[in-house]
Structures are given as structure tokens and as C-alpha cells.
Amino acid sequence: MGGGRMRLFLFRYSKANRSIFLEEDRVKAETERAKAPVDFTTFHNLLYEKKHYLKAIKACIDFKSKYPDIELVPEAEFFSSVPKDIKETSMSKDSAHDLMLKRLNFELHQVVPTSRGQALADEYGIKFFETSAKTNLNAEQVFFSIPQTIRISKPDPDKGSSTVTERSACCGS
What angle do CA 80, 82, 85 make, to 5 degrees? Predict the structure, then answer.
């Protein structure tokens, strides 16, 4: 091969190489142009989805419970005094939601139905009060009714009989 032929071969080889690179760039650009609407749509969908999730999270945070005044026993007290049937439920021990459900269940376990309380009051011949130590509902009335009930049911030592006498004022006045 002569020097001229070699240059011609090298020239053709360089030209073919350049045309391959140019064709590759053209195909890449065409692919990018075809992908742009798809990428924009995907991006738009992701933004919409993000906005939807943020709206749902805000709705959960702003949610006002039907029972905002429920006070549960502190966790330490709950774990020390909870019955086994509540403690050994199939709920996982590390979930905050499951713990809340267990504590609510414990609260239900501690509540005495009104009918049972009324029956006990009738059985012992005392006035029935619906009470709550947490909210201080009727706690004072119950406290002051206990001495009255004791005084009413205690026999009068002066009369020597075991009849029940009722006094009208506090402290025997």
C-alpha cells in the first residue's frame, strides 16, 4: 500500500467514525425528545401524589376526636396493673397504636356498669353515685355521703334499741 492509499483509507475510516458518532448523538437526542413528555407526566404525577399525601397527613393531624377528653392511665401504671387477658392479646408490644388499644381496653375493663353499681348500692342500702376519680365526678358528694350513711344506719346508744334513726343535720346538731 502506498502512502496515498493509506491516507485515503484513514480519511474514509475517520469519516465513517464521525458519521457513527453523529448518528449516535442524533438517536440520543431523538430519544430524549421522545422521553421528555413521559418524564414530565411522571414528574407531574409524582407531584400530584405528594400533594395528595400531604393533604391526607394534614387531615389526620387536624382530626378532632369524638372523645378528646379521654384520659388513660399512665403507661407505667398500666403495665404494672393490667390483667393478663389484656396483656397477652395478639397485638404487638412495640406498636404505639396497639398500646393505645390495650390501654383503652384496660379502661373498659375497669369500668363498672351502672346497673351493677346500682344493684350494689341497693344491696347495701346506700345512695348510688356515678363517679369518676379521673374527672372528679361526684367524688365530693360520695365523700360527704359516707358519714351520713354510717350515722343513719348506726343504732342510737341512748335508746338501747337497734332501730335506725335519721338525724337532720351534720355532726348531731
Answer: 140
Rounded CA separation 103/74 (Å): 9
Between CA 78 and CA 73 the distance in angstroms is 6
State pLDDT tens for residues 87-100: 666 555 567 777 77
For 133, residues 6+ apart whose C-beta sits below 8 A from its C-beta are 139
Res. 77: pLDDT tops 50: yes
Residue 69's contacts (CB-CB under 8 Å, 6 or more residues apart) are 135
- From the number of C-beta atoms within 10 Å of its C-beta (0-12, 13-18, 19+), residue 103 rates as buried
- Write out the three cell numbers for 54: 400531604
